[in-house]
Amino acid sequence: MLRKLSIGLIIRLAGMFLTFLSGMFIARILGAEDFGLYGVVVSIAAILAIPSQSGFGNLIIKEVSRAAENKDYIYALNIRSWAKKRSFIISMLIAGSSIAYFLVSSRYHDNLLVYILTSLSVIFLGQNVVYYSYLKGIGRTEIAQVLEALIYPLAFFIGCIVIWFLDLFNLDGSMIIRCLSLLLVTFIGYFIVKYSSVTSDLAKKSREVETKQLNKLLIPFAFSDGLRVAQSHFFLLIVAVFLTSSDAGQFKVAQSLILFVQLPATVLITLLSPEISRLYQYDLISLKRKITRSTRFYSFITFIAFLCAYFFSLDLITLAFGSQYNIASDVLNIICFFIFVSSFFGFGDVILNMIGKGDLVLKLALATFIITIFVSILITQEYGIIGAAYSFGITLLIQRISYFFYARRYIFQS
User: Fold this and answer.
1) Residues 205-246: pLDDT tens digits?
2) How many whole angstroms from its chain centre is CA 215?
3) DSSP assignment letter at 202
4) Of 216, 186, 209, 226, which is closest to residue 55 (Cα–Cα)?
């Protein structure tokens, strides 16, 4: 576990560092207003990808890890094939519809290429989730993390440097590089998955994929994941709509640094998800012990991150992004504090999803999201970007407490 965690942290940290460098590079060249618009279209892409992406990751990890545990490799391959085809069809429909809308609506014509590329990126995002989730399910977590967290930021960073040297760097150019980088991940993921799969002669007689049952399992996963994605991008969009593009740029800078704070949680979730699904069936005592240790480790790391943000964030942001982004320091401090407090309540949503309680996660996520919409709009309009930061933190804390309460009921009181 410690070895896998260390490898995962190194991979994620390298990817986060490259993402940070790319963000710093783009923010300095484009300026606060265009960087804010860049952040908005990336958020739009993530939201458009929800129907073709959300739910598949957790479902694939859950079903494939169980199939691999039982050496039912053909069923695992069938699950991957089903998810890949379904995700592709949905993403094509969404990309086509959104491109048609952007072409018809005159308000998007000033940055039409940016919005078209945003729509096309939905296709690649959906396929990439299927590939690295399948790899996690069959136990190739290190390869999955390289595919998920390292290849794209590396390709994007190199691409940004290249077009900057060619004097072609602008908002359109950055989006072209983003799409090409996502496409590269898709191609690499296809070949890695193809040659990582176990052939049929090593598998025992397989079950047929029951589409109706999978759809039933997918719905709560999809809605809970979709709400999580929508919430993570919701605050940036709220800032852009009710404040200014420059404010959105400030918030985007803070978000780029928050990724480092959330890095340990991302790695732990990657490692814990298949373990929770497996141990819940066979060894509940070991599962409780593993969850407790992981939560304590995460709380310690987020406490260190909060202290670093509090004492060094202003200097770091000024040095990396420029003095025009100094307000992002206050946003970062507020959100880091709430991340630290919420870390005491662990990974309840992941636990509930992996033990088959995805419908409960959906209900809790939906309830908090509805509250978030009204509260965030009111606070942001009244207190500006600082109000958006408090809304983000309060929402996160409420969610973690609610997930913790129910996860404790099913795991620690059983």
Assistant:
1) 445 556 666 666 677 667 667 777 777 788 888 888 888 888
2) 22
3) G
4) 226
